[in-house]
Write a structure and sequence with these properties.
Length: 172
């Protein structure tokens, strides 16, 4: 359980690094006329992602969930792969990547990196991580709750993002 706790702490540190990058990128976008959309769904999204990490620890320690190698190792591989995909997305979008929906009018869609094959690869990373990270140590309740709540939130987020991109293309 201690190794799993270290894993969750490392993911939390990674999330903090994302927020630093997002803050810097938000300033870049706003300085270029970027417009933010979907402010209302952002706080619930932050709460849900924080709850994922907390839920992993609370369930594993509180319910004494075991590490099952046949489940845990493949889920760890998926969780690490999700991190790799997330950072590939961040690199491909450069200063346009953000945890918020901020669109700079007139900029073309990014078509490189994972965006060559998927329209929203960062959300694939979020979905995979959302079930894989808890299941590394059989926190199945956390995996199920996050997956269901995240599905609802992703529908809202994707609609917001698509609307923002459409509006910005129309304004350009």
């Amino acid at each position: 359980m201690l190794a799993y706790t270290v894993l969750i702490v490392l993911v939390a540190v990674e999330r903090l690094a994302e927020l630093v990058v997002a803050r810097r990128n938000a300033a870049w976008s706003l300085a270029r006329g970027g417009v933010e959309y979907g402010q209302r769904h952002y706080p619930p999204m932050v709460a849900l992602h924080t709850a994922l990490l907390a839920g992993c620890l609370v369930e594993v320690w509180g319910a004494d969930r075991p590490f099952l190698p046949a489940l845990g190792w493949p889920m760890l591989v998926l969780a690490v792969a999700a991190q790799g995909l997330r950072w590939w997305c961040i690199r491909a979008l450069g200063p346009r990547w953000n945890t918020r929906v901020i669109v700079v009018p007139g900029l073309p869609l990014v078509a490189g990196g994972p965006y060559r094959w998927l329209r929203h690869p960062n959300y694939v990373a979020v979905v995979v991580e959302g079930f894989a990270l808890p299941l590394v140590h059989t926190a199945w309740v956390t995996a199920l709750c996050f997956t269901l709540l995240n599905a609802w939130l992703l529908v809202t987020r994707l609609r917001c993002e698509e609307r923002a991109l459409t509006l910005c293309r129309a304004a350009a």
